[in-house]
Amino acid sequence: MTMPPVKQTFNFGSFLSARSVMGTTIHDLGQKYDNVWALVADTGGALAAFHKDFPDRFIDVGIAEQNCAGIAAGLALEGNIPFIAGMIPFMTMRACEQVRTEICYQDLPVRMIGTGGGLTSGGGSTHNAMEDIAIMKSMVNMTVLSIGDPNMIKDILHQSMTYPHPMFVRLAQGKQDRVLYEPGTKEFGIGKGLVAREGKDASIIAHGEMVFEAIETAKTLAAEGIDVRVVDMYSIKPLDKELLFKTIKETKNILVWEDHLMEGGLASTISDALVDGAVKPKHFKRLGIPQAYAGFGSGPEQRKKYGYDRETAATAIRAMLQK
Amino acid sequence: MADPKEVQRLEDLAYEMRKKLLNLCGHYEGAVHIGGDLSMTDLLIGLWHHGLNVDPKDIRKPTRDRFILSKGHGAVCMYIAMSLRGFFDYDDILAKYGKLDSPYGMHVCKVYLPSAECSSGSLGQGLAVAVGMAFSARQKKQGHRVYCMMGDGETCEGEIWEAANTAASYKLGNLIGIVDKNNQLMSSFAGEAMSFEHYSDRWKAFGWDVIDIDGHDMAQIVDALDSVPPITHQRPTVIVANTIKGKGVSFMEKVVGWHAGSLSKVDMEKAIADVEAAHAKARSAR
Q: CA B42, CA B241: separation in Å to the nearest integer?
């Protein structure tokens, strides 16, 4: 079957479906490794090619996420590498205990890739993913990544083939994701972060969809003479502490911006690392989802309503530099 | 029909196992899930000493039949059944059970016993894992079966039926479920809180072949294990074994308080005397 082509021409901010990059990548891995399996709970669209070419390694369990996690564990116990693709709230919450007890407790190389990170799903609070990072990072042996740039998923999934632990990968909306990096120009790695834009006055540390928002905000501030660095901290657990401490040392002012509850996500991870490491930024502020169950609307509309949009971020940076 | 000599050999092993279980229960300071251990003792002897293709010299032999104890609180029962086959040393289990860093804990734990097939303890999760293993075996064209021992109480969990649905939908004939149907949960009898009526029909309705047996009749256990279909069969099989919680000990049988407990020396001796008397009676009837 011909695969949907993955756009390789670089055009910053253009849309690309992270789900189709994921589907193409898992198909490639399935071709290369005969122990790669794909599992879905009625969400198999992006894996149609895998299903067609490797039907005996594709399982659609219907709408049954707990079972899906358990079956993945059984496959992994037999030396397979199962990739579960689905919607974040159900794979992380409905199947929470199965992920913890069947996958993490036994330290099995299951990869969970979820779409709809933060308030991007449009489905309201049943479908929003605002607790997933807090839940997943609390599990022993679990690795947690949040990927904005759709091409990054390809490198990370290839690297995961030699990674012996469970992994949760949060994608943003999944259908229309912003291309951030020219393919081949950045190195991605589990446990690493990267500087998406250089700057010296302050840093925005973000993950997922908020990296694009941060770059756009940095552009706005640049016009005012404020030079903002943007760090894409896509590996939330393990955290790239070296990059974090270097960022604080060099830019002093930190804004952590994420499409997740303000408590329990990247900001909390960073806050822990700073306290434990006795590293003190001049200013530290976090932007994200407050304690609220959001309704409906687009991502930008909701971010504005809940106070973590571009304007709020720009105001926060300006305020830091005035103090 | 089961070979009477084989049945007697297994009955003698089950007798040894009950005594060893009760001895451990009388020596361990904490609670042992003795009620559900005694209800599946005959089944585990049938499995580990007759039904399963396993090799005590190589616990992880690739061609072995896989056995998942979904009712993980019966871990010590499985360890003792396996020790009688030579996988573990009973005295080692007795000395270490439940102690710090022990390989033999209350629930099966791969962290401390890496040779275990699968960690368990959280109820209702084993069948899905067994389904995953059965998928893998079929895809790799391996000849072994995957067996999963469940308690009837844990089949209140929804995940059991999600997995049952998947196994039948994907025609996993290499998967064998066993339900230790002792008609008790931790705190109630079947029918008091939750209904277990038409129990075998539930599995049939999900597309499974069902073998109903008396789980304390070794000839029936052997016959059931001998009659499981070839792995190419188009339906999974479940053996619904009707059992008695606390089987063999007069003061434990069908008593809710004996879901778990520890035995005083006097009670341990009384319990072992019950088991010895029942076995002597059975032997004289042979």
A: 10
